[in-house]
Amino acid sequence: MFIKIYLTMKNKIITDYLEYFVNLEKPGYAVLLKGKWGSGKTHFIQNLLENWNEPEDDKAKIQINPIYISLNGISNTKTVTDKLKAKLSPILYSKAVKVGKKVLEGILKTTLKIDLDINNDGESDSNISGTIDLLSLLDSESKNITGKKILIFDDLERCKIPIDEIFGYINNFVEHTNCKIILVAEEDIIHEKYEKSEGICYKDFKEKLIGRTFEIESDTTTAIKSFTKNSNGFFKQNEELIEEIFIASKTHNLRILKHSLLDYKRLIDETEKEYKNHPNFKIFSKNLLCYFLITSLEYKSGNTNIKHYQSISSFFNDYSTKSNSEFDKKYDSLIKKYSIKNSSFSLEIEELLNYLKTGSVSKYLKVIENNVFFRKSEEKDWEKLWLWYFIDDIEFNRLKKSVWNDFINNKINSTFEILHVSGIYLSLLKNDLSNKQPYLIIKNAKKQLRRTVKNENITILESKGRGYFNSSYGKQYQSKDSKEFNEILDFTISLIKNNQNNNSKTFLSDIFHHLSDENVNFIPELLSKTYPDSKTNYDRTPIFKYINAKKVNTKIKNLNNDNIDSFTNFLHNRYHPEETYTNLTLKKYHEDDIPFLKELLSTVSITKFKNRPIKTFQYLKLENELKRIIHKLDSFDFEGQDAQYY
């Protein structure tokens, strides 16, 4: 029998055994197929299921083909029974269409030995499937019911029915019918769920029901071929790169890989034709594919540190540097092997994450317009000077003078161009090709950077790529390892951090100092935005640290009554995180909100309203909530909590 799935040798052994198992007359046990989420368990069994479907060859018999049931989210056995009946009912309906209702009734009378005249009116009941116990089709040993009677129960680990109860239910089919039962599950989750449970021993129940257990093994090479067989030539040309990235990621989840390839395809499909027809599109899309897969595989596997990979944040703290080291070890060798450029050349990691989180391609479409692979503008003088060691002497002297004049006369308006120019002149000085001394280069660089960082409003959110501080415009910074260049770089970073702090204060001030009926219900959504340092969200920072409580109270007074209630609920949810997520608790940044909360309580408690009973009621509710929150925060032991982040 041909199996339409790519198999490892181990999976071929499983297939052979299952072929043997489903042909047993009455096995007396179930088979368990286990494997990690995304390992291909469901795909594996559904391909076999297709091959086990048999054509109906006798009109006088009822053919029962394999039945597949997902137990995901099911909380009682009645629902399982209903699902089984829903699978069996179409079999009778289809049979009635093929042979006629009267003929089917005759078959059922003979097979199940029942009288279908339920109403005793001399007429057969019109709803056949509603007048018989459909599960009796599985119990019957009549030769009029054919098929192997295979029942497949998938997603056992996601079933909400206690394991002893669902196993007892399934065991009934094993002991009292000729059904062949196959269970599919991520068994480790079941073990974890019941290893600490009192009175329920998973191992004991398993031994009573399951006779053989097999683990499905992912076959990366052939799985990738199956994912790409219907795609365009690009995926096929890069199958080796795809496989090496997947293996390096240690994800072991083919489902995530498949979804990642589909997400990438959508991004490329949105690309305008003028770029697709560009001679550099092939190398651009290869670079993008590499970082897209790395980002998607890591992010969808729960590794949030991926946001630090090739990120500017590595210049701010040791933690980010360690995160980069983690990914460098994984991917550097294959990046070099396939001549992949820095992610800043295609799309930065943070923008890839944004696409994965939101599905929005707008940023991608904007970035690609100015991408180094597709640029239409002529090279600037500093870009030509960057290749000083190749150019003609006359041109070199012209460029050296021209770029310096631009540098000292405020004609360079890009922060990253200033970094390039600084690096170039430090390199020229080192090679005795310029008399511009380090102090002069540093002095002018700092002067220009104060202007450009402010004018460009650069924050870490907008310049996250490690490539921007390693390279930009497709070029590495010259002298980037020198003491002088790093002084300029550190100065740039300090300016950006100041921008970051100012921007965050402005952002929070805009929310709370301009509170209104139009925006109060959007506070949680606004605070879920990424903080400028790219390490966390606003709601995981001391949001009220620089907020004026009296201004906020003035805004609260002007809210509708229901929106005052909404603001009260917002405060409650913020300081009771354990009610939303069981693994969360108060953190250090909550403590930093206490001064604001106490000041707000003082102003709220003295606020009075005339002839406004409902508003008075809502303010009293707000006052009491503030008291409870402050008491909770004052009583909480913040010692040892992270200073800012979860």
TrEMBL record:
Name of protein: KAP NTPase domain-containing protein
Organism whose genome encodes this protein: Flavobacterium rakeshii
Domain KAP NTPase: 12-242
Entry-linked InterPro entries: KAP_P-loop, P-loop_NTPase
Record lineage: Bacteria, Pseudomonadati, Bacteroidota, Flavobacteriia, Flavobacteriales
